[in-house]
Amino acid sequence: MRPVARPAGYAGAVAVVDVSEELKSLSSTMGSIEAVLDLDKMRADIAVLEEQAAAPSLWDDPENAQKITSRLSYLQGQLRKAEELRSRIDDLEVLFELADAEDDADARAEAVAELDSVRKAVDEMEVRTLLSGEYDSREALVNIRAEAGGVDAADFAEQLQRMYLRWAERHGYKTEVYDTSYAEEAGIKSTTFAVQIPYAYGTLSVEQGTHRLVRISPFDNQGRRQTSFAGVEVLPVVEKTDHIEIDESELRIDVYRSSGPGGQGVNTTDSAVRLTHIPTGIVVSCQNERSQIQNKASAMNVLQAKLLERRRQEEQAKMDALKGDGGNSWGNQMRSYVLHPYQMVKDLRTEFEVGNPQAVLDGELDGFLEAGIRWRKQQEQQK
């Protein structure tokens, strides 16, 4: 199988491909991925979950039913993706052999394009194997809050909420918004929502930190450039095995009427719930449900997640102290979105950047997530 040129306009670093070597590399990488994913165990888990999902009493416990069906759907999707990718790798050799046998330049260009597509898909799947942290397999709770920058910061916080929800929508991931506090003029003060798919926490935890927006402010009558900030917090969803106990006597519970943009009431009853954990000062609220009881349950889930993360950070701080690490290796400010005087979004840790901010704000985040996960793994290995 002879080397072939990349198609015109290809942006790769090399102009000629040693197809045999690249196919061997792809197959080897895919073999490592299959070993980490443990496809046989995945098939066995799917069989068990399918049996549970078929039980007549499944929806007697809606919360457990949701977990079973969500886990089943995720595993089926991962297995299908791995099997299809292996099949595409196996088919590539045939595509190149046919193109060589017929000396067909168009067929060869199509084969090279497919090779590039498969390589990208393998790289993306490889990232999944890097999610091996204690809580990485959990669903995620994302909390976004406006920081410095006034109304521009509130507007930016709302843009970030839309960005993550659009990212989840693109992938078919279920989300649920628990609470949104709207700002007076525009945008939001804060929001909390769940991404209900396995490994959502491991994937999105690299987004945690301060995001910075530079643009001509649409709220400034003089059209001046404005820098604003929004904070993103990502928490793992608490499971029953976590043993996060909350004493009711340590809680202050306030109920109030849910509100929409501009303070407009959206509920005629006092169903929204705000919980204050007195020992830590942590405050959470929920207003997405019509029932006060449901809102309290959702707020308790968020509070438990925050307490779990607090405990994790305290344990990590102790480990860092023993290792002589001040715990500042991650930093705080992690990404800049520049809309003026030039167009760019850049991750300040990984150096990954793109020149189309609007696409990123529309949910095209996979490049940043992949770079962040790889960067985090490198940081862990250096410790």
- Give the overall silhouette: globular
Distance between the termini: 43 Å
Oligomer: single chain
Q: Mind telling me which CATH architecture of the largest domain this is?
A: 2-Layer Sandwich
Tally of separate domains: 3
Number of helices: 9
**How are the strands ordered across the major sheet?**
4-5-3-7-6-11-12-13
CATH class (first level) name of the largest domain: Alpha Beta
Radius of gyration: 24 Å
Q: State mean pLDDT (0 to 100 scale).
A: 86
CATH topology of the largest domain: Alpha-Beta Plaits
Helix content: 40-55%
Main structural class: alpha+beta
**What is the count of β-strands?**
13
Strand content: 15-25%
**Biggest beta-sheet profile:** 8 strands, mixed
Low-confidence blocks of residues: 5-16, 322-331
The ordered string of helix (H) and strand (E) elements is EEHHHHEHEEHEEEEEHEEEHH
GO molecular function: translation release factor activity, codon specific
InterPro entries: PCRF (IPR005139), Pep_chain_release_fac_I (IPR000352), Pep_chain_release_fac_I_sf (IPR045853), PrfB (IPR004374)
Family: Belongs to the prokaryotic/mitochondrial release factor family.
Function: Peptide chain release factor 2 directs the termination of translation in response to the peptide chain termination codons UGA and UAA.
